[in-house]
């Protein structure tokens, strides 16, 4: 026991400092169960050294330093005692214990783990005969594990004080390299089955090479007040997927192993320099992507997309990762939608250095253009901004139409008519119906019109055209269908408003002008 007390006098405080310093290497906080798992790992390494066999050895990994591995076990026992509020110096109160059989480690560790699981309410509780509490039982098993481990080192003629000192030096050297970022690191990501059940983890490159499902996080940063959205020019040398810089979503990337969606805001900080809280994000869309980009690059992703509204300009992007991102660009949301929908050939954008540039469709990553992702996300951004204006226009259209119905009801009611063709649509909370109507069964008079329903209110003949024969009706019918199918609600209502209310106000102006002209003549 004196040797063990001497060991504690030499290394106890150093051991506690080391385990505290190692917290910087962890992706999340550990509890007692995690520390027990780490103890199992280190104990497995001891067995690996003593009973090395090719049938169970890990490929291309060499574990052969018994002194180092036993030191790691002692370190983890000291650490576990810290977590469980056990003073290691109370070990001297243990009755004489000289057991040194290696198999005893597994038995004692199993008993210790069972008791800790009971304390954490992971197993049903049981009496521990000879002990007043489970805490006393845990303390007894932990101390016996420590003594047994120490005795095994002595039996193998190891100077465990020196071995532990060497382990501390190696570990602190690793931590120095870790802090300086000089460690050789690989990026690991969690992998899933097609139903998004967690399977494990692997290197990111391997996930794409072998086609494992995994999660990605993306965020569009925009300025609602100025109706601007920000894209990044991705450095093609960073991900080696594209051959030239292309515009991509403001920030995004793979969630690293163990990372939750909430922790995905790390990507925003790394790529833009902005500190964003997850609670400030608005969820936009979850998509799945399953396609082969090239021979050894398969994309199977669960993609989670968010947005955040910031009162910034593109010049505020300063502290971003310039190895990954070449620059940021500011675009008008409506202009970008027109470009993505191929209604214009190019638009103006502003780079973070202040340069004004022309942006064409070829400047975007075609993978996200062709699958409609950018249109979908930008449409969802513009919906909120444009909804209030759109609702005002719908109400105005409703009033104008109702006024027309009261003034000339025969233009809206066709008692002797019949519907020859109709096509119905639903876009968000607005329903549309394109109709071809024979206004009188006894004539060849037709009308083709667009009807909308919102908030349970019907607005007939938002757009309409009369025909004296069926010739031309199909063409106009299809044009109205295309209008609804290929445009957002805001764009549809805008067009209807211009034609309906604009003409109404124009007619009112000319009537008033004629009235005043006649009055003064």
Please give a structural write-up.
Helices cover 44% and strands 23% of the residues. It is α+β, with helices and mostly antiparallel strands and 521 residues long. The model has no long low-confidence stretch (mean pLDDT 86). 28% of the residues are buried. The strands form 3 sheets. Strands 3, 4, 5, 6, 7, 8, 9, 10 and 11 form a 9-stranded mixed β-sheet that branches.
Give the key terms.
521 residues; nine-stranded mixed sheet; single chain; alpha+beta; four-stranded antiparallel sheet; elongated
- Which spans have pLDDT < 50 for at least 5 consecutive residues? none
* CA-based gyration radius: 36 Å
Number of helices: 14
Count of distinct strands = 15
H/E element string? HHHHHHEEHEEHEEHEEEHEEHHEEEEHH
Averaged pLDDT: 86
Largest sheet: 9 strands, mixed
Alpha-beta classification: alpha+beta
| Oligomerization status of the protein chains | single chain
Strand content is 15-25%
First-last Cα distance: 123 Å
Helix content range: 40-55%
* Global geometry: elongated
Q: Helix and strand layout, with pairings?
A:
Elements: H1 2-21, H2 32-50, H3 66-83, H4 103-119, H5 134-155, H6 160-180, E1 188-192, E2 198-203, H7 204-210, E3 214-223, E4 228-234, H8 236-239, E5 246-248, E6 251-254, H9 265-272, E7 282-294, E8 297-309, E9 325-332, H10 333-340, E10 346-351, E11 356-360, H11 366-370, H12 373-407, E12 418-427, E13 430-438, E14 446-454, E15 457-467, H13 473-485, H14 489-520
Parallel strand pairs: 3-8
Antiparallel strand pairs: 1-2, 3-4, 3-6, 4-5, 4-9, 7-8, 9-10, 10-11, 12-13, 13-14, 14-15
Helix pairs in contact: 1-3, 1-6, 2-3, 2-4, 3-5, 3-6, 4-5, 10-12, 12-14
